[in-house]
Amino acid sequence: MKVKVLYFAYCRDAVGRPSETVEVPAGVETVGALRDYLVGQGDPWKSGFESVKRIRFSVNQVMADETAAIKDGDEVAFFPPVTGG
Description:
Blueprint lengths: L1 E6 L1 H7 L3 E5 L7 H10 L4 H6 L5 E4 L2 E3 L10 E5 L6
Parallel strand pairs: 1-5
Antiparallel strand pairs: 1-2, 3-4, 3-5
């Protein structure tokens, strides 16, 4: 499955890009599992996500928690609790 991942604010700075399309392996079915998968890929995701104590998520532009299911073609956004324009 492929999902579009968007990064905002500090997350974007840490990862070094505003977005990417990620080929998600079988078994990664939630936002939290996607985050853990990315962290498992090493830097820049590992240092980017570990530096933020609390990351917020959205799926298809709707706020979600880490248990939210993801499916092929979804847009998942990661951002710190406070972001600016």
